[in-house]
Amino acid sequence: MSLERKRGNTHGAAAFATLSRKRESALLALLVAYQVMWDYLDSLSEAGARGGHSDSGQLHLALVDALDGAHEPDAAREPDAAHEPRDYYACYPWRDDGGYLDELIETCRRCCRQLPSFHELHPLLQREARRIGVQAINHDRDPDRRAIALRKWAEGEYPGEGEASWFELAAAAGANLAIYALLALAAQRQCAHEDIARAYRAYFPWCGATATLLDSFVDQFDDREQHEHCYVAYYDTPEQATRRIGELLQRFLREAQTLPDGERHVLLAACMAAMYLSRDSARTPALKPDSRRIARAGGQLTRTLVPILRLWRIANGQSAT
Asked: What is the three-state SS of the chain?
């Protein structure tokens, strides 16, 4: 179900392969497999929460293990839990997936081993993959408990962070775009620590927060009707939410321009924003004026891409997704 409903996510992940100066089939396969797994786990976690099954984050450990394939356990250390079989479905009554999740994990690991600079980025990738486990909190059905837990989590993970609010940090952590930018760096033959740090600072939290908040923005009325978690609801007013999303998008675009091959990062950012803003829900009378404001904040490229991607959605039957 998620393969069809969230196909646009997979296309978006695959686009990060264009950041690599040399086309790497292993990178493309890794990006697609990781996104398919992310969507699968996200859908499963959400369904579990609706059924009253609490997920402590065990399910999302698959995302961590998937990015550990290039390293063998150190014989001098205690056995590494990441290399021991985990019961990812420990919190769920259903677990017979026919080996689907294990195969996705192994595919990612196999691709990681083919990326020349993966070892340089491995610690950072592992940390960011663990943080995606915040999705387990996002799916908590109790809004008060969820907000308290999210704030506590964000303040614990990012102490002293003053440029983004706690819920913007949580929103950014639940996205995986920084991971994809880092994997594109891992595909290069040489990867300096300075380049890694610059790419991470550009993508986190600015790109991740923008993506999650745009998704929340276009879904806000459906989320409210279905009593789902909605990140834009943390802002004091809809006007504040619109203004802030535009600011986050502009910040990422400025940061992206400073990166090597910055035009590629800018194009990806504009495509991401335009993809959300080309959805049916973004064109409703209630959201269309705010959608235009956000598009203007994204600059001429974003504004140009919105109608183009609208046509792409219509041609591919993706208008509402």
From this structure: CHHHHCHHHHHHHHHHHHHCCCCCHHHHHHHHHHHHHHHHHHHHHHHHHHCCCCCCCCCCHHHHHCCCCCCCCCCCCCCCHHHCCCCCCCCCCCCCCCCHHHHHHHHHHHHHCCCCCHHHHHHHHHHHHHHHHHHHHHCCCCHHHHHHHHHHHHHHHCCCCCCCCHHHHHHHHHCCHHHHHHHHHHCCCCCCHHHHHHHHHHHHHHHHHHHHHHHHHHHHHHHHHCCCCCHHHHCCCHHHHHHHHHHHHHHHHHHHHCCCCHHHHHHHHHHHHHHHHCCHHHHCCCCHHHHHHHHHHCHHHHHHHHHHHHHHHHHCCCCCC
End-to-end Cα, the chain, rounded Å: 13
Select from 217, 249, 254, 253 the least CA-distant residue to 232.
217
Give the pLDDT confidence of 50-98 residue by residue, as tens digits.
776 666 678 899 999 999 864 444 433 344 444 567 889 987 777 789 9
Maximum Cα interatomic distance, the chain, rounded to a whole number of Å: 63
Q: How far apart are CA 114 and CA 244, in angstroms?
A: 39
Whole-Å CA distances, 33 to 9, 208, 225, 318: 11, 19, 32, 21
Spatial contact of 228 and 222, defined as CB atoms under 8 Å apart: yes
pTM of the model as a whole: 0.90
**And the tokens for 150?**
């999210």
